[in-house]
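Tip: read the tokens left to right.
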């Protein structure tokens, strides 16, 4: 399709996309960064490349405050917030469905992951209000969340298991990491910053017997950092995973793959507490 350009006072040209903008908080789709384009302007134009959009412009954040009970149940309050193209992907789900079904999308992801869950509170910003990033909050009770074995419990924190890992919220997890070497360049959907933070209150009389550890990675392609910290009866989880652009050269695969496989390791790792 055709897009529009406007010349700013500085002399720079700004891209606008009126076919894409409705329902999106960007005036230009950063899902089309690093693509060639020609401007139809008087005097003609050389081939130009759409700029890289920093991952921070497309953040996806999941925060949780959780409590594990002595019988292995979980109560948690979660908040999901998205911006840029991460925001746009979620809004598209709502905009292409009946308004009466809007409340079911996030709920269904939780119930698919945890069939016994009880969602006690739910709120989401209006998907048609573009003045603020999309934000969803939920309170959940999950009986039997932790596996109890004698004096021990084992569980994956809610932000690690992450019920919101479908293609809309976490397309990067669908990328095949089995290849160790690439001969050609590759692409992600968009640059993106994923952040996960959770505080977990564990029962009195319990302590952390084992917590996972992760390697930090940083490259032109992608960054990853994750850590569990323990203070008394509180366990804190913090994760940051950045996809630094959309299109990558073949020699950037190693850095991209290292960060992504460590992210996958995080999603599969559990915590063990003991009485």
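Filled-in amino acids:
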């Amino acid at each position: 399709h055709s897009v529009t350009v406007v010349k700013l006072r500085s002399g720079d040209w700004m891209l606008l996309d009126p076919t894409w903008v409705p329902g999106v908080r960007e005036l230009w789709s950063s899902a089309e960064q690093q693509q060639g384009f020609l401007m139809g302007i008087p005097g003609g134009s050389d081939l130009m490349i759409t700029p890289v959009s920093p991952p921070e412009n497309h953040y996806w954040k999941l925060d949780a405050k959780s409590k594990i009970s002595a019988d292995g149940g979980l109560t948690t309050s979660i908040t999901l917030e998205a911006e840029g193209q991460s925001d746009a992907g979620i809004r598209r789900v709502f905009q292409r469905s009946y308004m009466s079904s809007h409340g079911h999308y996030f709920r269904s992801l939780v119930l698919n992951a945890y069939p016994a869950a009880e969602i006690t509170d739910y709120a989401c910003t209006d998907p048609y209000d573009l003045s603020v990033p999309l934000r969803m909050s939920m309170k959940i009770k999950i009986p039997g969340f932790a596996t109890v074995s004698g004096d021990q419990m084992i569980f994956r924190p809610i932000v690690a298991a992450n019920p919101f890992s479908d293609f809309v919220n976490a397309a990067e997890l669908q990328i095949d990491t089995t290849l160790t070497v690439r001969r050609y360049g590759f692409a992600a959907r968009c640059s993106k910053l994923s952040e996960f933070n959770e505080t977990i209150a564990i029962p009195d009389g319990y302590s952390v017997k084992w917590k996972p550890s992760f390697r930090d990675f940083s490259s032109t392609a992608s960054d990853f950092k994750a850590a569990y910290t323990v203070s008394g009866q509180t366990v804190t989880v913090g994760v940051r995973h950045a996809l630094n652009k959309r299109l990558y050269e073949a020699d950037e695969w190693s850095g991209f793959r290292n960060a992504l496989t460590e992210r996958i390791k995080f999603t599969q790792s559990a915590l063990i507490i003991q009485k």
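The chain has a mean pLDDT of 95. The radius of gyration is 21 Å.
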